[in-house]
Amino acid sequence: MPHLCSSRPSECLMQPKAYYPLFADVHGRRCVVIGGGKVAQRKVTALLQYGAAITLISPTLTKPLKHYAQRKLICHVSRRFRPSDLRGAWLVYAATDDETINRSVYRASQRRRIFTNVVDQTPLCSFIAPAIFRRGPLTIAVSTGGASPSLAKKLRSELGTLIGKEYVPMVKLLTNLRGAAKRKLPQYGDRRIFFDRLVHGRVFTLVRQGHYQRARDEALALLNREAALKRT
Fold first, then answer.
1. pLDDT on residue 15
2. Is this structure's pTM higher than 0.70?
3. Higher-confidence residue: 99 or 231?
4. Which of 9, 176, 180, 209 is 20 to 30 A away from residue 194, measured at CA?
5. Which one is predicted more confidently, 229 or 51?
6. How far is residue 39's CA from residue 85's CA, in Å, rounded to a whole number?
């Protein structure tokens, strides 16, 4: 039975956390990063790849961060953090080497119920960022629950070697078939069985062999057969 933590933050910090894995849509959402060093730079660069609307709070910046600000890719506020900076934020990173600022960010964000990560201080995080491997539309995220980012990166690298290039066209094929599958197989359970057959059967084999059009034709033929069976 899960342990129910006290509502008081000081007591909650004493309890171990288990993080619910989640892929979030940050496109167009206001994300605030506090700090102007290399760690903040990595966080900003990652968020930009997913279309976040980034506000960066720091009196000093690395050269790449200055470049982002000059190109208007981010909004830079050149001063120290103020709690009011979090107004309207959806997600926050505190990436400074100042313990006082980091704790101030955490307290302010908790009052506003904002997803917050104080870098390298797991007790002050309401979310943690996994090690991410991307290949086209495919994303693999690995986490050790904040225990060891180094191990998470190692696991990401090892898993990446197992994911061949054929997974990219397979993901695209499955995406393109989703609309037709919803029309012809309205029941979720039927669609799940159909897609399971695609990824475990001859269609994926054809994709691995580079026969993309044949794979698509066979997938559509299987979909039509499944739909016909459901109508009888």
1. 53
2. yes
3. 99
4. 209
5. 51
6. 20
Average pLDDT of the segment spanning 95-112: 95
Cβ neighbours of 83 (radius 10 Å): 13
CA angle 71, 73, 78 (to 5 degrees): 85
Query: pLDDT digit string (tens) for 24-70?
Result: 999 999 999 999 999 999 999 999 999 999 999 999 999 999 999 99
Q: CB neighbours of 115 closer than 8 A, spacing ≥ 6?
A: 24, 90, 91, 92, 109, 126, 127
Report residue 121 CA to chain centroid gap. Answer: 20
> Secondary structure of the chain in the HEC alphabet?
CCCCCCCCHHHHCCCCCCCCCCCCCCCCCEEEEECCCHHHHHHHHHHHHCCCEEEEECCCCCHHHHHHHHCCCCEEECCCCCHHHHCCCCEEEECCCCHHHHHHHHHHHHHCCCEEEECCCHHHCCCCCCEEEEECCEEEEECCCCCCHHHHHHHHHHHHHHCCCCHHHHHHHHHHHHHHHHHHCCCHHHHHHHHHHHHHCHHHHHHHCCCHHHHHHHHHHHHHHHHHHHHC
Half-sphere exposure of residue 26: CA atoms within 13 angstroms, side-chain side: 21
pLDDT at 3: 42
d(CA 153, CA 131): 5
